[in-house]
Amino acid sequence: MAQNTSTQGSRAPEGQSTALVMSTTAFTVCFAVWTIFSIIGIQIREDLGLNSTEFGLLIGTPILTGSLSRLFLGIWAEQYGGRRVLALVMLAAAFATWALTWADSYITYLIAALGVGLAGGSFAVGITYVSKWYPRERQGTVLGIFGMGNVGTAVTKFLAPFIMVSFGWMMVAQLWAIVLAAMAVIFFLTTRDEPQLAARRASNQKPDSFLAQLEPLKNLQVWRFSLYYFFVFGAFVALALWLPSYYVNVYQLDVVTAGLLGAAYSVPGSLFRVLGGVLSDRWGARRVMYLTFLVSLGCTFLLSYPATDYVVHGIEGPIEFTLAIGFIPFTILTFILGFFMSLGKAAVYKHIPVYYPDRVGAVGGVVGMIGGIGGFVLPLAFGVMNDLIGVWTSCFMLLFAIIAVALTWMHFAIRRMEMQESPELAGPKYLPELSGNPPPPSRAASDGPTASATPTRWSRATGGRS
């Protein structure tokens, strides 16, 4: 396995900390722009008289294009350097955001929204860029710090409504565009090219072709990681969009309170991603994923239970009672779910530089793409589940099924890897105490304390045998 240039030598490369800080700041601004339609879309819908389907397509277009663009943007960052690509992405998204104020029809709004979506593609570029600056044993922490940029969605939800009420939605788009363009310039001027890119240019070495970058995508493991991220990121984004409506319809909260609860759900779910990175470095990403899936499975199982009225035929007549999750338990469970999702987001991306150090752009891009698609598809699926089943808790039933599949796949894949590394685990274990016979000499020797001269190693990077 190739090793990052930054790991060669004990001294950190010059510009390392600046690269992390500026990349995280830039991603925060990008994420705020990426979710701008969650606020300004309300006024645009009213101005254009859009129906629910048209409105859903409008606010979903940036999410979808931002997700799909992550694959090729990640590869370009690998080929041409994350610093240059990220700055260009921010400038392009800033232009598209400003162009919203020029739109005069539904079609032109959709076209501009396609460009706004590029801001979401910045994630794959930033992951590629930041990972090149740090050694493998620290990448869980630093990628978790970079992922804090998800808090940009809360920035938009908290600030944009006040600006829109005071000055109109166009002022929001113009201010967000100006800030993003300024961030692109500041980022480019204050950061350096990653050490590997500088070394490659010094040796006049050409980058690998686009098709060569896609080679790891043939591995089923990449798509397994993508399923993990479909839940921990895609479902997180979907719930951030879905919860306000859930609070209003199930617990009869007003829109303002429901919106604040939705924003509050997003903030810790973004900030605790750093903790997920730290734990992945210390305990191993595999252990963190097990913890994430098991706790999430329990939370979604409880949240899936619909409010139910029971009638028990008692001795002295019917006994009636209702079993339902109240507002406070529901809020606590969703916050627990969001917390462990944030740990899982960091753990998934801890795996990628470990297994694919030279293809972080392509692998991280496709994993991020599938996760982003989850944020687009799952809210639609939640609505379909409501229509088909007729209960509001059906969204959590769907998430429970997704987690169960991901956990099962992960567990059996890990077991298969362990069997390949240690074939003796697959054979039957000799238990002489059950048979009443002493073990044969060869068996006794192999089962003793000196069974193997080569001890099994434990990989801190993945949290498993290696």
TrEMBL record:
InterPro entries: MFS, MFS_dom, MFS_trans_sf, NO3_transporter. It holds the Pfam family MFS_1. Keywords: Membrane, Nitrate assimilation, Transmembrane, Transmembrane helix. Its main location: membrane. The keyword Disulfide bond does not apply. Gene3D superfamilies: MFS general substrate transporter like domains. This is Nitrate/nitrite transporter. It comes from Fodinicurvata halophila.
